[in-house]
Amino acid sequence: MPERAADRSEARRDHTEQLARPLTGPADSPAVPGPNPIAGFEDWPAAVRTARPYRGSDAAGAALGNLLGLRRLRDRPSVVDEGSRTVDGLTIRKVRWSVGYGPDTTAWLLRPAGSHGRLPGVLGMHCHGGVRSVGAEQLVDLGADASPRAIWLRGTCYAGRAPANELARRGHVVLVHDTFSWGSRRFDLSRPTPRLAALVEAQDALWRQQGVRPTEDERFDFVSRLHEDTVAKAAGTLGQTFAGAVLTDDLTAFEVLAGEDGVDDARLGTFGFSGGGGRSLLLAALDPRVAAAVVSCMMATFDSLVPAGLDAHSWLLHVPGLWSWSDWPDVTALGRARFLVQYRSGDELFSYDGMQQAHRHLVSLHATSRRYRGSFSDGGHAFDATMQQEAWDFLTETL
Fold it and tell me: What is the pTM assigned to this prediction?
């Protein structure tokens, strides 16, 4: 017995020494760190940990902000001007800023060329679309410098039109920005983790079998769709939500717009299609300066979305805990914005019954305030030319 106890004691010492040694590769090679699941955003945890608590404009806004896990990273950031051009009667300025962590945000400011005086300002929200290689550029026509992926996305979702250009021609200053994890704010996925790499390898095999040769952007978009689960997990671990990380970027962009020379900060609005519509809804709920919001193809009841729509939508829509606090239509009660909500009867991502239920509830909810206008049209999930015209008329009338 004494000898066996000694053996166990020696074994424990050996095991403790092994745990204390640094992990290394082969004897003739130095240790190589594994892939970072949040590469490009290594400073994200520290930024969240040191940020000031979020404070809403009222108790309801504070509750929503805290549920989203919002943080007060900074006030209006320093904006770097990267040059301007004139395209079809519009002045388009490319700008960038930092939200305090991760890559800088790229954005475009559009206004009628030669305009004077203070104009209404509108923040345009790009959609999710499963496409992260392009963010804000899906909303703006840069002329000869337009990227093929942005042109393709405008043809798929926006009837080939550039919404930011169209609205700016109506006499508005329009800001469109890449939000968290899109475009300039994308994660570095050049070294995927083993789990992600295995899924990508399987897709590569399928593409080879089908004779498909994806472009670099198409491949990145596929990988980033898989990576969203990891980003949402990281956000939750940090006390945020994926939607909250996105809204933190959006709130910063709204500060940039409100502080822009020539913008009337008493006439501010926002618009968005699909995931961008959800972002417009949440921004209007969180910031009382938003006077008008267009929400296109992003409104239904939770009963119609959960569990039936769990796999059809991203973490941008499925905000953990939101269902126990409120329903999507009820979010419009926050803030002071007037809403135009556009529905499509053949929308593949939302059931017709779920949209009708939301519409009836919104009519009742805003019967006295008249802050809600609902519009149904035929067709699938898209922001077509007729819807855009209705949206620009609404924003012009309201602002």
Answer: 0.90
The tens-digit pLDDT sequence of the chain (399 residues) is 444 444 434 443 443 343 333 433 344 445 557 899 999 999 999 999 999 888 888 999 999 999 999 987 667 899 999 999 998 999 999 999 999 999 999 999 999 998 888 999 999 999 999 999 999 999 999 988 899 999 999 999 999 999 999 999 999 999 999 999 999 999 999 999 999 999 999 999 999 999 999 999 999 999 999 999 999 999 999 999 999 999 999 999 999 999 999 999 999 999 999 999 999 999 999 999 999 999 999 999 999 999 988 888 999 899 999 888 999 999 999 999 999 999 999 999 999 999 999 999 999 999 999 999 999 999 999 999 999 999 999 999 999
| Angstrom distance (rounded) from CA 268 to CA 173 | 10
Q: Which long-range contacts (CB under 8 A, 24 or more apart) does 302-310 make?
A: 302/327, 302/328, 303/354, 303/357, 304/350, 304/351, 304/353, 304/354, 304/355, 304/357, 305/350, 305/354, 308/351, 309/349, 309/350, 309/351
The answer to whether the bond into 307 is cis (omega within 30° of 0) is yes
DSSP single-letter state for residue 104: P
For the chain, which domains are there? 80-185+239-398 (3.40.50.1820)
Report the 10 Å Cβ neighbour count for 2. 6
Contact 224, 132 (CB under 8 A): yes
Rounded to 10°, the helix 216-237/242-258 angle is 100
| Distance in angstroms (rounded) separating the CA atoms of residues 183 and 246 | 13
> End-to-end CA distance of the chain, in Å?
87
Angle at 299 between CA 293 and CA 303, to 5 degrees: 145
Nearest CA-CA partner of 173 in 275, 296, 259, 272 = 259
Alpha-carbon distance of 82 to 84, in angstroms, equals: 7
Evaluate whether 105 touches 97 at the Cβ level (below 8 Å). yes
